[in-house]
Structures are given as structure tokens and as C-alpha cells.
Amino acid sequence: MIKKCLFPAAGYGTRFLPATKAMPKEMLPIMAKPLIQYGVEEAVEAGMDIMAIITGRGKRAIEDHFDVSFELEHQIYGTPKEYLLHEIRDLINKCTFTYTRQIEMKGLGDAIYKGRVLIGDEPFAVLLADDLCTNEEGEGILAQMVKVYNKYRCSIVAVQEVPMDQVDKYGVVAGKSIDTDLIMVDTMVEKPDPKEAPSNLAIIGRYILTPDIFDLIKETKPGKGGEIQITDALMAQAKKGMVMAYKFKGRRFDCGSIDGFVEATNYFYEHSKRNDEKEKKQK
Ligand code: UTP
User: Fold this and answer.
1) Is the pTM of this model over 0.85?
2) DSSP β-ladder status, 182-190 and 243-247
3) Ligand 1 midpoint to CA 25 (Å)
4) CB-based pocket (< 6 A), ligand 1
5) Contact call for residues 108 and 9 (beta carbons, < 8 A)
6) Which domains does the chain have, with CATH numbers?
């Protein structure tokens, strides 16, 4: 059983300055809900109940969000607004939240390594909250990945096809097709030049990792951009054993970029309007 989900949330979010000067990127809302809450809900749906969050300076709002707010709750208790906090209260009751800080932003690999003390020696999920994922047709992306993990018992990365001219924004994988939606990874390159990319299969912000990844990250030298890249550690893991890439069902919005954020807002707004209309008709 995978019980723990790690949320690297220490990055500066420079693409959203000045909004992220004093506010964590992960707290940006789509409709009235912050990105990180969508992430925690996805992890809970996948059966996880320990949320391990990697924070940094200026990220305290995340901890406050997953805590009670006595004054506010007292104020709205018994009023028609009380229901607005039900969802988050329910989430807080279901989960345990643990935190540690990444002191220097040395990259995603380093942020994940900082989580070692919170995770211990067990397989775990990693969720980047600025990649907002949804699947209208069925279960969420992490829940789908847990099923794949239960079958193959190895690290799994979620991938999606992206236009070739965008591969240089992602870690890109290639390998042997095992099934229509599954690839056994033999190549993994961080932000390749489109001319040299091994495919257009881009890794998005969902991983399931086996705990041997920690020692591999420890041995990983800074790579692209001088950062410790999780893709380099995963490549080492693929060489030693097995790493799978999973083409998930559903949609993903890159909410770390303005375009993706606006797209997600429009999508969730339309979706909620459709649901409201459906409910009205049923009444
Ligand atoms: P990004 O590169 O998208 O995030 O990292 P960023 O650096 O915050 O954003 P920009 O590019 O400056 O706008 C992907 C994820 O990894 C985390 C980020 O918080 C984000 O969730 N991360 C990245 C860390 O926690 N630590 C790091 O050193 C780097």
C-alpha cells in the first residue's frame, strides 16, 4: 500500500511574479480552491493519508491552509457560509501533514531527497501541485498509477505526448512498449533540444518512486541548469532495474504557466457551471 505522498513545493514560482513574491505558487486558486488542495484530494483518492510537504521560505500559508482557523471558523459557525469550509475540514481530518524545508533551491531531485526523512523506506508518490490533473471519465491520475505500481512494483512516471517544439520544457522518455499505455523506460533526457529528443513523451508532475531512489539521488551530480535532476536519478534506476512510463487517462494543466493557469480556470469554471445546471434540472 502506498500511504505517503510527497509534495515538492519549495520553488520560487518566478513565472508568477509578482503574485508569488509573498505567496506560494501552490496557493494560487483555480476557482476558490488552491492548487495544492486539488493535489491532496487526488492523493487521498488514491488511498494515501500522509502528506509530506517540502516547503521553503515564504511558504507558511501552505501549513496554515491545512490547519484549523479558530477565529474564522467561529465567525462563520451556524451561518450559511459554514459549508464553504467543509471540504477542507474533511481533508484535514483524513490526513496527517508533515513538513520539512529545502534551504537552497537545488532542483526537484534535491527537493525529493529532502523528503527522505518524512518518507523513510517505503514506496511513495510525488505530486507537483502546479500540474493540475483531472479525469472526468474515471479515477484520478495517481489512483491509476497506484494500480500500475501494484502490478509492476517499480518506479513509475506519468507521461503525455507534447508537441515536438515543446519537449525542451520537460524530462523526456523513450523505451519499449509493454502495453498501449505503458513503456519500459530505457532513455530519459532532461529538457532535450527538440532535434535530439528521443520522443515527444514528456514527464508530468506525477511519480511513484521506490525508496532506493534516495541513494541514487544522493549519487546524482548537478545536471541541466546546475540542478539535481530527478530524471538523472531515474535514469540510473532504469539502468539498474526497471522504470515504467505511464500514459495516463485524463487532462493535465500546467498551472505553473500563465497560459495553463487560465486554461484550467476556464475548464473548471465551465465544468462547475455544467454541474450546477444539471443539479437545477434534477430538482
Ligand atoms: P518548477 O521549475 O516548475 O517550479 O518546479 P518553480 O521553480 O517554482 O517555478 P518557476 O519556473 O520559477 O516559475 C517544479 C516543482 O518542483 C518544485 C517546485 O515548487 C514545483 O512544484 N521545486 C523545484 C522544489 O521544491 N525545489 C526546487 O529546488 C525546484
Assistant:
1) yes
2) antiparallel
3) 9
4) 8-15, 25, 54, 102, 105-108, 110-111, 128, 130, 256
5) no
6) 4-282 (3.90.550.10)
